[in-house]
Design a protein that fits this description.
Number of helices: 20
Order of helices and strands: HHEHEEHHEHEHEHHHHHHHHHHHEEHH
Helix content: 25-40%
Largest sheet: 8 strands, mixed
Strand content: 5-15%
């Protein structure tokens, strides 16, 4: 996602330096910049677990980066820990600037902090990411990071001990970070007081064709129906082994260099969303405010469904009609024109078959051990989270059915050859991940909030596969935002009352939920004899 950048740790300087105060006071909140802080985090939280103890790398600490904002903090206020998830800390700064953490800090005199996940941003335990060095990138290690940080964190310029559990720490995360929020409260609820898990995938599976369901249902239907038919036609060519027709089809998109049909299928699905690391702003990147929700998906759909396209474009609809009994592939000309005009430009090298673009069949490129968020995310998917985006086995499809789970599983094999102390499983151990509770995951003061139009929703609390009857309560609250996409509640505009009604009401609900929790913190402390 495209997020604004800002930073937060200027606070120590503010208490000492009048000039720094002037800079902060005069800088618009959504442009604030803050230097990082670093925390000595344990490489291995489980020294007696043979899974980790067998490695000679399991000792010591690494520098984990964090940022904080005490703009609204008053003594006695809570700490809001934003889980950074599968990206760098700075790319999450908008949540402190104007987003959900700002909303909650302002409402409760709290302090906000972003903790960068291990193996992301600059928070790597090692200088490279070999299979052996990635041994410590697991869900349980990440959850333990959050609890250990909360128990030992310091905030320069704040003359108070804000560690947990003596201070209420409330977590927030969206997407993978949302799941980590939920699991942190489940596992470390004796330390971490509460959490809001937004669009959190808590029940995973090997394949996830349901990713496309909200697009099938809610996107402009003239666009959707055209793409469905074009995909059906292509899949028919593949089924009948019309090799020459497949070559002609690829050439219409300017992608004849993609010799693997699955790579090609992923490339032409790039504006929609595909199994790889797509380059476009897709349905998932839509937002409720233009400053953080590019409309590219709708521009794409508008092109595909254009009824006023010039003749030189509409004639392309007939290019392969001889393979469909003379019937045109309606919208094909507009589809190919968009891909060639806009999507291919996202590959500056022009080498569309490279791993930097849409080619995935270079095994040596996957084996590069450089520290990158892509490699870390892939590793997590390969060992325990799965959710490989694949085509549906029946019904309409926006992604060609040539793409199945073996497509992404092959990347795992190439990327992570067996090491001395670590090797990945043949397929992700999703049952271990789901063992935290899956759709029945629950903990006191754990809130779930999702969006009805989120592509990941069928892995979340409000999934259509989840138990149908569950009651929200103060200790176990839940909220399903009408018309919302992927963790849309994480964004804000510094004025809750001016937000669109369903986002406004979600934010007001989150404020009320947290305030209720905070009123019970004293009793919780007494019960724990703190």
């Amino acid at each position: 996602m495209k997020l604004c950048w800002w930073s937060v740790g200027l606070l120590a300087a503010l208490s000492r330096d009048a000039e720094a105060f002037q800079i902060k006071r005069d800088t618009p909140r959504d442009q604030l910049q803050y230097p990082p802080n670093y925390f000595d985090q344990l490489i291995n939280h489980f020294p007696h677990d043979p899974q980790f103890a067998k490695s000679n790398l399991s000792h010591g600490t690494f520098k984990q980066r964090y940022y904080f904002d005490s703009s609204y903090y008053k003594p006695g206020g809570p700490v809001y820990l934003y889980i950074s998830g599968e990206t760098s800390g700075p790319s999450r700064f908008s949540n402190l600037q104007t987003g959900i953490i700002q909303v909650l800090m302002q409402a409760t005199n709290g302090l906000g902090v972003i903790l960068e996940n291990r193996y992301y941003g600059e928070s790597y335990p090692f200088s490279t990411s070999t299979t052996d060095e990635l041994l410590f990138l697991t869900t349980n290690q990440t959850l333990a990071d959050n609890a250990y940080f909360a128990q030992h964190a310091t905030f320069p310029g704040i003359d108070a001990n804000l560690t947990a559990p003596g201070t209420p720490w409330i977590l927030y995360g969206g997407s993978l970070a949302g799941a980590q929020t939920a699991l942190s409260i489940k596992v470390h609820g004796d330390v971490l007081y509460g959490g809001i898990a937004s669009s959190a995938p808590i029940k995973v599976s090997l394949g996830y064709p349901e990713w496309y369901n909200p697009i099938q249902k809610y996107a402009p239907q003239d666009c959707v129906s055209r793409i469905n038919q074009i995909v059906d036609n292509f899949d028919l060519l593949v089924e009948k082994k019309h090799t020459q027709a497949i070559k002609e089809f690829k050439a219409l998109f300017g992608l004849e260099s993609l010799t693997d049909d699955r790579d090609f299928a992923a490339a032409i699905a790039d504006p929609i969303g595909n199994p790889g690391f797509y380059h476009s702003n897709t349905w998932q990147e839509l937002g409720w405010n233009s400053t953080f929700g590019p409309r590219d998906f709708f521009y794409f759909c508008g092109n595909v469904s254009d009824i006023d396209a010039p003749e030189e474009i509409t004639q392309v609809d007939y290019a392969l009609a001889n393979y469909t009994n003379g019937e045109p592939w309606v919208g094909l000309g507009s589809y190919t024109n968009y891909i060639k005009t806009y999507t291919l430009q996202l590959c500056p090298s022009g080498d569309y078959n490279s791993n930097d673009c849409w080619g995935t069949q270079n095994a040596s490129a996957w084996a590069d051990v450089e520290n990158t968020s892509t490699r870390s995310y892939l590793y997590t998917s390969c060992i325990e989270q799965g959710a490989y985006i694949d085509a549906p086995k029946e019904g309409p499809a926006l992604l060609s059915r040539v793409v199945d789970t073996s497509y992404e599983q092959q990347w795992c094999t190439w990327a992570f050859p067996a090491g001395k102390y670590n090797q990945i499983p043949p397929t992700p151990d999703v049952e271990a991940y789901n063992g935290f509770g899956a759709f029945n995951l629950s903990a006191d003061r754990l809130a779930f909030i999702d969006g009805t139009q989120d592509v990941w929703n069928d892995l979340c609390y409000h999934s259509s596969f989840a138990p149908p009857v569950r009651t929200s309560s103060d200790l176990h609250p839940e909220y399903f935002i009408t018309g919302a996409g992927h963790h849309w509640d994480s964004y804000g505009i510094l004025d809750v009352e001016a937000e669109p009604q369903f986002i406004r009401e979600a934010h007001l609900w989150e404020i009320k939920t947290v305030k209720k929790w905070l009123r019970g913190f004293g009793d919780w402390k007494k019960a724990k004899k703190l």
